[in-house]
Design goal:
There is one protein chain. The protein is 25% helix and 26% strand. It has 193 residues and is of the alpha+beta class. The model has no long low-confidence stretch (mean pLDDT 94). Bound molecules: cobalt (II) ion (CO). Cobalt (II) ion binds next to α2.
């Protein structure tokens, strides 16, 4: 397996029209394995073919690990998906706002509103049909990756043009919010009872 170079904005490849995958041969299997390795090496939760410069309807996704009550990551709780020619054929009316990053937009996080639940169908790495319902964070990652296959980036969908931050700004905001919360808790005798 090998790690592939990831293209970043404003690369035209990220906006290109993609074509469906039709051949499920050894070359495709190698490409998928390389994409998985590239995603992991970059600490990403998803990688779409246009991000390595290929106009194909193919993406890999690896969900975040579950955590125990103390916030420790539980082993073997990440799920890996290979999605080919995917189609989101149902979206919930309920939406949720959340922060997203993208390996093709390094160093930034932006707020995007997404459907809370979706149903998606497509093909797996061997060309077998699948159908899935996804919720919350998993639904968000899938929507982000399917957008990539349509030349859409999260920066096209920010809740407001200014709702994008560098990782440093975001970290500072989070610390300040945490500090403010601790102060309120200190003045509220009910908390912690
Ligand atoms: Co992305």
């Amino acid at each position: 397996m090998s790690v592939l170079p990831i293209v970043t904005i404003p690369a035209e490849e990220l906006r290109a029209k993609t074509r469906p995958v039709t051949k499920f041969d050894a070359d495709l299997q190698k490409l998928i394995d390389d994409m998985i390795e590239t995603m992991r090496e970059a600490n990403g939760v998803g990688l779409a073919a246009p991000q390595i410069g290929l106009p194909l309807k193919l993406a890999v996704i690896e969900t975040l690990p579950e955590e125990d009550d103390d916030g420790n990551e539980l082993e073997d709780t990440r799920d890996l998906y290979v999605i080919i020619n995917p189609e989101i054929y149902w979206v919930a009316r309920e939406t949720t706002k959340g922060m997203e990053g993208c390996l093709s937009i390094p160093g930034y996080l932006g707020e995007v509103e997404r459907a809370e639940s979706i149903r998606v169908r497509g093909l797996d790495r061997h060309g077998r049909k699948f159908r899935m319902r996804l919720n919350d964070w998993d639904a968000r990652i899938f929507q982000h990756e399917v957008d990539h296959l349509n030349g859409v980036l999260y920066i096209d969908k920010l809740t407001a043009p200014e709702n994008i931050w560098t990782e440093e700004e975001f970290e500072k905001m989070r610390e300040e919010r945490q500090k403010a919360r601790q102060q309120t808790e200190a003045h509220d005798p009910m908390v912690g009872d």
